[in-house]
Amino acid sequence: MRIVFMGTPDFAVPSLQKLIEENYEVAAVFTQPDKKTGRKQLITPSAVKSEALKYSLPVYQPQTFKDGAAFDIIKNINPDLIVVAAYGKILPKSVLNIPKYGCICVHASLLPKYRGAAPIQRAVLNGDKETGISIMQMDKGIDTGDILYTVKTKIGINETSAEVFERLSVLGADALIHTVNLIENGKADPKKQVGESSYASMIDKSLSPIDWNKSAFEIHNQIRGLQTWPCAETVICSKAVKIHSSVLTDTQGAKPGEVIRADKELIVSCGDGKCISVTEVQPAGKKKMDIRSFLAGNKIAPGTILGN
Predict the structure, then answer these.
(1) Would you list the DSSP string of 126-144?
(2) N or C: which end of the chain has fewer CB within 10 A?
(3) Per-residue pLDDT reduced to its tens digit, 12-32
(4) Which contacts qualify for 124-127: CB closer than 8 Å, 24 or more apart?
(5) Whether the predicted model's global pTM rises above the 0.85 cut
């Protein structure tokens, strides 16, 4: 089967790798244009581009699909199937109609829940206990197509979005190969999406500040859901500090944001009278560190209110 692969971030790399390992003909790779990243704003290729170049695959990075140039490239390649995994661009109907078997998408949620750009982070932010991979036959809507295959997996109570991201990327690759095999053998059985839908909008820095009036569970989910970017953030002794990880604790709380203990642990009270234990932080301008290292250099008195 002749395949055009479209993807951009790390999440999509295992799917590309798996197609190559299974000896599918990856005729071309489409990915987002190189972007400036990091403090030095260096021009950096996407994770998918870097992987594709290892195998000397043709790589295309169109800024848009509106001018017809990308359509012509794909039409000339004449793929049997287009595989999309976190590409980051909406494909027009003209492109969706090119391949014999259409276009399928590796989506990191149990559709129709969490259509859109950030399904993994939203699932963790909302404290979901389960997520998964949906392999979807793409249509002109945003993640509204028929489902070809689904894999479910539990989300651990302390699992971060970064950890779920990595796990789902591997599950997605396996689910993709299973689905492509079904398509090849004429056994694909598309099913309409059933259930309540929601839109998983992009994550941004406006979500970072911790409101200590929220419950311990909500704050814990915020911390693990925003790791590794943009990270939950609070003010400790007049200094901005990112919080990378936490655990729930049975310690009895007091006022929202009040430090209950700050010896070998940093236990903070939340709005519902319960507490979280902060386990990993990153002061502004410094590297990430465990809480013992942070407390060794920062004396915090019990009763201190965070966020002020």
Answers:
(1) TT-SEEEEEEEE--SSSS-
(2) C
(3) 999 999 999 999 999 999 999
(4) 124/155, 124/159, 124/160, 124/161, 124/164, 124/221, 124/224, 124/225, 125/161, 125/207, 125/221, 125/222, 125/225, 125/226, 126/221, 126/225, 127/217, 127/218, 127/221
(5) yes
